[in-house]
Design brief:
Order of helices and strands: HHHH
Helix content: 55-70%
Largest sheet: none
Distance between the termini: 108 Å
Number of strands: 0
Structural class: mainly alpha
Radius of gyration: 39 Å
Length: 115
């Protein structure tokens, strides 16, 4: 009877485990996915609320006005003196020479006196 009872007990445990697994998988769905309530609680919009129609503004007069405003702002920006390229008063070689001279002066200013 010991072997039959052990086999019966294993079969009963297997049956209970499979039944619990099926109940967990086939739990109440309520028509929503399990994470839908959490997503709604966090403030995410539902994709079902997205309209399927298009509200694009295709009025030519509106876009002509927008284009005119954009061109006017562009002209105003280009007329600003800060928008002009900086004049290049020296060549790159002159700039490098000045930088080397400044670095050498700074190095000498921080060297201890060799007296």
């Amino acid at each position: 009877m010991g072997i039959a009872a052990g086999t019966l007990m294993r079969a009963l445990i297997l049956f209970v485990g499979l039944t619990a697994g099926l109940v967990a998988c086939a739990g109440p769905s309520g028509g929503q996915t399990p994470g839908a309530d959490a997503a709604t609680a966090q403030g995410f919009p539902s994709l079902r609320d997205v309209p399927r129609t298009t509200d694009a503004n295709v009025d030519a007069a509106y876009w002509a006005q927008v284009e005119a405003e954009l061109l006017a702002v562009g002209r105003e920006m280009r007329a600003n003196p800060r928008a002009q390229p900086a004049p290049q008063a020296e060549t790159p070689a002159d700039f490098i020479e000045d930088a080397r001279r400044d670095l050498e002066q700074a190095r000498q200013a921080h060297e201890p006196d060799a007296q």
